[in-house]
């Protein structure tokens, strides 16, 4: 990874250097903090100072001079022709633009072109890999397991990923949360306190709100049918009618499908 970053930095540098356009100032002028005369003067340039162009907005150019960025009016800048540019008077048509280049320069030029092509490819690969990594990660990201908690004092039930705050219990100074276990797909019902809960396995027997041990009955896996007990008033969602044993209000649950 470090290597890739280093390579990218080198490439970035190579691209910047290749793109750098040098201009010279035609007179003394002000460098402003923004593209316009209303912006403050940041510093001044003397005639014939060499600056690097970062952006050309037409009337104004963003420049950098001794690592200080700023804006100047384009009309006071003149492009410095590159040394290896073709002399203007030479007829362009019949000339091979690389004729005058010695093999060393040519090799360097080809090298630079290859380096830039390589950089582009590297960037592209890097981008693709990153996208692929993001795509591969997406389905792997699973929701944190959550747990059912019930307060021993007020019998409030909550599903959270961590133990809830003890503040604001309605029946005692503090909630006293007891974990009923990891939230899951199976219905459990306590015949003493009437609590129903969907967990992965039967919850602990300890700390029933009714002051005894919970007596849990397995009412079956979660489904799309709603069943309502006319005696104890609980509603459960199951695949089929649950067992009728252990109703908290009568001899047996009297289920009605809703
Ligand atoms: Zn409470
Ligand atoms: Zn109970
Ligand atoms: Zn019942």
Description:
Among the domains are: 21-81, SH3 Domains (SH3 type barrels, Roll); 147-257, no CATH class. It starts with a helix and ends with a strand. The longest helix is centred in the middle third of the chain and has 38 residues, at 103-140. By secondary structure, it is an alpha+beta fold. It contains two helices and 14 strands, in the order H-E-E-E-E-E-E-E-H-E-E-E-E-E-E-E. It has helices at 2-19, 103-140, and strands at residues 21-25, 29-32, 41-45, 50-56, 60-65, 68-73, 77-79, 147-151, 157-160, 177-190, 196-199, 216-229, 235-238, 255-257. The strands form three sheets. Strands 8, 9, 10, 11, 12, 13 and 14 form a seven-stranded antiparallel sheet that branches. It has a five-stranded antiparallel sheet with strand order 6-5-4-1-7, with no helix packed on it. It binds zinc ion (ZN) (3 copies). One zinc ion binds next to loops.
């Amino acid at each position: 990874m470090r290597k890739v970053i280093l390579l990218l930095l080198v490439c970035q540098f190579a691209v910047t250097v290749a793109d750098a356009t040098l201009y010279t100032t035609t007179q003394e002028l002000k460098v402003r903090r923004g593209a316009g005369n209303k912006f403050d003067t940041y510093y001044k340039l003397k005639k014939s100072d060499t600056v690097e162009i970062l952006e050309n907005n037409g009337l104004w150019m963003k420049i950098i001079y001794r690592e200080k960025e700023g804006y100047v009016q384009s009309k006071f800048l003149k492009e410095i022709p590159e040394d290896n540019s073709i002399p203007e008077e030479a007829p362009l048509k019949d000339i091979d633009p690389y004729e005058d280049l010695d093999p060393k320069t040519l090799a360097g030029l080809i090298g630079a072109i290859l380096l830039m092509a390589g950089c582009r490819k590297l960037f592209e690969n890097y981008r693709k890999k990153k996208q692929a990594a993001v795509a591969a990660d997406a389905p792997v990201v699973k929701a944190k397991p959550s747990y059912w908690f019930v307060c021993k004092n007020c019998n409030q039930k909550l599903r959270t990923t961590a133990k809830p705050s003890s503040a604001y219990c309605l029946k005692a100074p503090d909630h006293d949360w007891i974990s009923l276990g990891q939230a899951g797909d199976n219905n459990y019902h306590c015949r003493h306190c009437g609590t129903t809960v969907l967990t992965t396995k039967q919850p602990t027997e300890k700390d029933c709100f009714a002051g005894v041990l919970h007596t849990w009955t397995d009412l079956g896996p979660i489904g799309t049918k709603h069943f309502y007990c006319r005696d104890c008033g609980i509603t459960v969602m199951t695949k089929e009618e649950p067992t009728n044993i252990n109703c908290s209000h009568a001899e047996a649950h009297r289920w009605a499908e809703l």
